[in-house]
Write a structure and sequence with these properties.
With 71 residues, this protein is α/β, with parallel strands linked by helices. The protein is 42% helix and 17% strand. The chain is built from three helices and three strands.
Amino acid sequence: WERREDSLIPKGAIWVRDAVSEFVPEENEVITAGDGPQAIASAREQRPDLIVLDVMLPGLDGMEVCRQIRT
């Protein structure tokens, strides 16, 4: 049995995505989102194990995205 873990990272945070990708095994998926509303939709649909948010996301800031995902 092998568990695949997914990570959701905003597209604007390219350096973060690259850094996380260095530590995430290749068989795991890194999902990107272009803005706050897309990040919320992806998080609810994909249910990733790790979410990295940018405080200055377009559409909704990372703090609001976090609040909405947690509710």
